[in-house]
Amino acid sequence: MTSIGILGAGRVGANLARKLSAAGHHVTLGVRNPEENAAVPGSTGSRISFADQRATARTADIVINATPGDTSLDRLTGLRTELAGKILVDVSNATLDAADGLPRDLCYPGGSLAEHLQTALPDTRVVKTLNTMLFMVMTAPETLAVPPTAYVSGDDRNAKKTVIGLLGDLGWQPGWIEDLGDVTTARATEAMILVVPHVLRRHGFRPFAVSLAR
């Protein structure tokens, strides 16, 4: 199985860690204080370990960016050496928040966080996915009444193939995965975040995804 490092141990990172660990992968959660493992809910799986973010990026085969999108670029640029040669799966959205804490505007209008990461990390293969849904759908897509869609963007075909395999481990069926093309297509899926606050304000924090209907 694969060695996976997850940068960010909030709801998104911890949720992905539990499911990927259960699928047999060795997962390292990059946290500020590795000794405080109990701070990550449900993090008692035998394949989940803890390290600081630099060590996590250095030792993993695949790294998942689950850090807040508005600070991801600066944070990951500082890990350029550790991320060289790795696949970086970016699941974050870079937004400026409204007064109620929900997304208001994009940090990179006319572009995307994924594109900026790929430019800043030329020796890293960036793949964007799982950023068009609430975090609980990432690891349980089968729970929605209508099949959701996981969009995939990235320049490297082999990297995308590897990431699509990981999506399968998270419960995504092949027909629910849409490869949009190169990393520039991430600007379209990242813009989808702007629909999220309106849905949440009307219906509350209920699982949903922005899906493609055929």
Give a verbal description of the structure:
This protein is an alpha/beta fold and 214 residues long. The protein has a single domain (3-203), classed as Rossmann fold (3-Layer(aba) Sandwich), CATH 3.40.50.720. Helix content is 33%, strand content 20%. The protein has 9 helices and 10 strands. It has helices at residues 11-22, 53-59, 69-77, 80-83, 113-120, 135-138, 157-169, 186-191, 196-203, and strands spanning 3-7, 26-30, 48-51, 62-65, 87-90, 95-97, 103-106, 125-128, 150-154, 177-181. The strands form 2 sheets. Strands 3-2-1-4-5-8-9-10 form an 8-stranded mixed β-sheet, with helices on both faces. Strands 6-7 form a two-stranded antiparallel ribbon. α3 (69-77) runs parallel beside α5. The chain is globular and about 40 Å long. The model has no long low-confidence stretch (mean pLDDT 93).
